[in-house]
Amino acid sequence: MVFGRPDRGIRPQTEPLTLKLLVAGGFGVGKTTLVGSVSEIRPLRTEELLTEAGRPVDDISGVEAKSTTTVAMDFGRITLREDLVLYLFGTPGQDRFWFLWDELAQGALGAIVLADTRRLADCFAAVDYFERRGIAFTLAVNCFDGAPRHSAEAIRDALDLDPDVPVVMCDARERDSVKRVLVSVVEHALATGITARRPATV
């Protein structure tokens, strides 16, 4: 800066746009893995060991190897562009922790509903939650090894999703795959918000 005037050619720094996204879905669907695979910081996790006492209420059929579970939330951060930062909040999957969802959903731009084709019904509750609250979401099918493969349209029909809800296939372990899901959520949420604000024509 010279005599109080900014030097030419030097762009003033601006704060990046920060957006909050939720990652939801059934028990053992891969929410913690998704947040961890894409976060540029060490993710915050609130995991506890599964115990014999929890077996009557935690259905682990299909995910028998799972040994821990999220009891509050997962948290991560990723910079998609120089001017766009996403904060990711993973929700707990078990019914008894759903009271936390309302707190986590405050201020969220949109959400990822993660699904497993072996236990597709487990994501019904998350789909219903976001539909009822008018929160835009993308359904991301986590393609587990050995899990049945179905087309996006077949999954859309099975879950009775609205035509405008994106359905994408992903691998929650792969950073690039998860980034494509995040881009889908942001684009869908922004488009939904623009449509909602557009005045009706007569």
Span between N and C termini?
54 Å
Give the oligomer, counting copies of the same chain as homo and different chains as hetero.
Answer: single chain
- Please state the structural category: alpha/beta
Query: What value does the average pLDDT take?
Result: 81
Poorly predicted runs: 47-58, 63-71, 197-202
Count of distinct strands: 7
Summed up, the helix count is 5
Q: Fraction of residues in helices?
A: 25-40%
Strand order of the largest sheet: 2-3-4-1-5-6-7
Mass-distribution shape: globular
Which series of helices and strands comes N to C?
EHEEEHEHEHEH
Strand content: 25-35%
C-alpha Rg (nearest Å): 19 Å
Q: Let me know the largest β-sheet.
A: 7 strands, mixed
Protein name: ATP/GTP-binding protein
Keywords: GTP-binding, Hydrolase, Nucleotide-binding
Organism: Streptomyces ehimensis
Family: Belongs to the GPN-loop GTPase family.
Descriptive overview:
This protein is α/β, with parallel strands linked by helices. Helix content is 27%, strand content 26%. The chain has a 7-stranded mixed sheet, with helices on both faces. A hairpin with a 2-residue loop joins strand 3 (68-81) and strand 4. The protein starts with 16 loop residues before the first strand and ends in a 5-residue tail after the last helix. Residues 47-58, 63-71 and 197-202 have low confidence and may be disordered.
